[in-house]
Design a protein that fits this description.
4-stranded antiparallel β-sheet; globular; alpha+beta
Length: about 300
């Protein structure tokens, strides 16, 4: 062995290829560990949580916060806790567990949920605030005085009973039934039947867009092991009103950071394209790089969703 070889630091003789391969493998393992147990990136594709979360918001979600600790030291070491009313949550869609949804938890197991003329009541108490949004149509916009209202855009709360929140779906359907001699809308929410909750909902269809229970729901108790989730954009969100309570074991985490916000299509209304194959991933990357400076919402990037 030459004198030069003896002077090499330990491990240098294994070669550059092996050294780089070890770095790559370690990085991959670290990423997999982080994604599995710590956090994961999610992108908002629709306006169901607008304006709390905008289309094109890229979120980091804490995946272990809702985990059940196995030992007492876990709870002391990590910020683990049960889901609370008002939490923004990421969960598997009950009718297709391959899809992830982002909504707000509005009620817990045992709570009584009621919706009266678009207002949410939990255990008899009105729940509203700046997070709650409603969309007024053209005739309703004209009737509003003293406010700058944009047609078709979600208006923030709070929404006390005396504030006009727009025509309810029940009123629209009742009017159409009368004018067109159609059947009267149903009055019993199908997800109030315990038997429906025992079903495997994979592949089932939610209530359609003319859901009569969207704006008016009789008092309903959230069953054990479930929670009630709603989008903040109440007039443009398919949520528990359409497909029933969310099983607690479907929870995936809680968003804690908007690490990047990007205007899809250059505006706030264009839905984001959900990648279905590698080509879509490449196109999303190209668009992001091409329009990074002009479409990034700099005021939202780095914010904490509430």
């Amino acid at each position: 062995m030459s004198d030069d070889a003896k002077l090499l630091p330990p491990g240098a003789a294994k070669g550059a290829w092996r050294d780089n391969a070890e770095v790559v493998c370690f990085a991959v393992l670290l990423i997999v560990f982080f994604k599995t147990f710590v956090g994961q990136q999610f992108t908002i594709p629709t306006a169901s949580m607008r304006n709390t979360l905008m289309i094109g918001d890229h979120l980091l979600a804490n995946k272990f916060i809702f985990a059940t600790p196995q030992w007492s030291w876990e709870e002391r070491l990590f910020p683990m806790r049960g889901v609370r009313r008002g939490d923004i949550i990421v969960f598997r869609y009950p009718m297709n567990r391959d899809m992830d949804y982002v909504k707000r938890c509005v009620a817990l197991p045992g709570d009584t949920v009621e919706i009266r003329r678009k207002r949410l009541y939990v255990n008899g108490t009105l729940v509203t605030g700046p997070f709650e949004h409603h969309i007024l149509d053209e005739t309703e916009v004209a009737a509003v005085e003293g406010h700058r209202i944009l047609k078709g855009q979600p208006e923030p709360g709070p929404w006390p009973p005396e504030r006009m929140a727009g025509t309810t779906m029940q009123e629209r359907l009742a009017g159409a039934a009368k004018d067109l001699n159609l059947p009267v809308p149903p009055t019993v929410w199908p997800w109030s039947d315990p038997e429906n909750l025992r079903l495997d909902r994979q592949g089932m269809e939610p209530l359609d867009g003319h859901n009569p229970f969207r704006d008016d729901l009789a008092p309903t108790t959230v069953p054990p092991g479930h929670l009630f989730a709603m989008g903040d954009n109440r007039d443009n969100s398919q949520d528990s009103r359409y497909w029933g309570p969310v099983p607690l074991d479907h929870l995936r985490g809680r968003p804690f950071l908007v690490w990047w916000s990007f205007r899809e299509g250059g505006n706030d209304d264009s839905p984001a394209k959900v990648p279905e194959h590698p080509g879509d991933v490449v196109m999303n990357f190209v668009d992001g790089a091409r329009y990074f400076l002009v479409r990034t919402r700099w005021d939202r990037t780095g914010t904490i969703p509430r």
